[in-house]
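Quick start: what a row looks like.
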Amino acid sequence: MNLFRAIVHVDLDAFFASVEQMDDAKCAGRPVLVGGNGRRSVVAAASYEARAFGCRSAMPMMEAVRRCPQAIVRPVRMKRYQELSGRFMQVLRNYSPLVEPLSLDEAFVDLTGTERLFGAPSDTVVAIVDRVRSETGLTCSAGLAQSKFVAKIASDLRKPRAVVIVQPHELEAFLAPLDIGRMWGVGPVAEAHFRARGYATFADLQHASEERVTADLGASGRDAWLLARGIDSREVEPERPPKSIGQEETFEHDTLDLERLRQILLGQTEAVEIRLRRRGLAARTVTVKLRCANFRTVTRQATLPVATDIGSELWLCARGLFDKWCAKEAEPLRLLGMSLGGLEKRQENLGLFSDPAVDRQRRLDGAADAVRKRFGDDAVGRAGARGRRGE
């Protein structure tokens, strides 16, 4: 494949569920649902055998089990998935330094200019898929094209265990029959808007002029008009820093037990701060998310004067936000969560102008992190914390 750009999108097939099928012979070839068993639990992943019954991720677990009563339900094992994700990403980095992870189980890889090392990109993508299987035990699907947008569509088109290569001369023909629902950025509301104006497929956009589409749909229409032709100049951006880090929990039953809620929030804050420090980051904003029994979602946010990774400072801020909510509008909750934003690289505060109290707290956090690294995340924690669940 002689391309000026050679972009690959690689996606592990039904990742969480496939791991459970690989690790437990009882699950092999059986419908598997990954997630909680509670009344309000949702499906984190469904194997292809379960998908045949209409099960899918984000579906309420009770509904998925109703559709597929023979399914095996397995809890989320995040540490195991992270371990295999690390192996997966390392395979990709063996073929290019330009790897952009999108999640634990998918990434873009820029193979442009790698021909002298590995041969034609069309051969390399097959080698990547084979190597992922040999080094992780998992199957993946991959799409190769000139752009990120087309590569991602291609990888999803014939899952599982498929490689789809879109040659430059067949680009528009490849995209033409696709439903407008596959267009990047087109959700259910926008999809109805497109259809109402006669754009049901990519071909409909290809056959219209840019001026007409823009007049019908505005700026988003122009973007879609370009993408329908495979025009996407976005680069593969390796190691893109996260915008936020957070954790939340949906409760089996609504609760207004404020002491229990504080304990859960403390555990969440501790879990998130650990992840923050492991990435060498500091946070400037703290957000507490509260979903009430009637599904009304409330967020409370505070901005710190200086970005920090110190656990006691983050907890003081999160607790303050929660306590203000308690004082003014407390009501039973079905979900509680917290997140850190405004992330930036941590700056060491050393020298003549360092704060001894801050330095002492940072040493305490560092010592606790060292214990966790050796003995696991639950080896040490603040008294009263509940609900810490690793990463």
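That is the whole record. Residues 244-379 form a domain with the Dna Ligase; domain 1 fold (CATH 3.30.1490.100). The first strand starts at residue 7 and ends at 12.
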